[in-house]
Amino acid sequence: MSRTFEIGPVQVGAGQLFLIAGPCVIESEAHVRKMADAIQRITSDLGVPYIFKASYDKANRTSVKSFRGPGLVEGARILGALARETGLPVLTDVHEPGHCDVVAEAVDVLQIPAFLCRQTDLLVAAGKTGRAVNIKKGQFVAPWDMRYPVEKTKSTGNERVFLTERGASFGYNTLVVDYRSLPVMREYAPVVFDGTHSVQQPSVAGGVSGGQPEFIPLLARAAVAAGVDGLFLEVHDDPANAKSDGANALDLKRLKPLLETLLAIHAAVPQPA
Q1: SS3 of 206, please?
Q2: What is the pTM of this model?
Q3: Most buried pick, 35, 40, 126, 253, via CB within 10 A?
Q4: Tell me, what DSSP letter sits at residue 205?
């Protein structure tokens, strides 16, 4: 049975589909505010609970030359100001245990990147902050083994933990989604489906990752039909010129029609207990 908890006004695991969305990385303070405002208008119109996301540092970029973001101090300042000014819950990645307390002062959800989902010290540090923790399933981890990252995080006494599916490695430079993972992981915690990283083609484009964003709606529809608690989508107003993950981002103009379809599927399909 999934546990239910709150992240600000967002009920996680309570049966209402929620959205985590925003650009991959903080490109500028003006840009994250523009994206937050645009997505908030769409979700408000549709009645979709919404958590904004953006990373202050993309520490796992393929190339050392790739844009990483403004860094811990400036990034936390930008995200904290956005949360205060918009009233939105905010999520961001953490890559090091020492970052967790700093970031927790600014945001509502600490996200454990997929590559780091087994890092005990990071999971425990995130859990100790008392903030909600989203653990992305590693591309190399079986869904039934995600019970252990959940246990590590909850060992701190923090029960506000959820999991995100983002595809599994299939040979080189390819990800596939095993939809059996959704009900399997939901035995341990509420589950979110990442429709944008699941179409990523890691490191395929000469030092950067490629993607097949045309398949985002297909995978997202299947995930909602399978019964997930929320959706995670990296959304950008100009994917071709995004500074990170533009190749697998959803274009902002496609967000509203996709959400309308997903809400219709969610309403039509009995949700798992």
Answers
A1: coil
A2: 0.95
A3: 126
A4: S
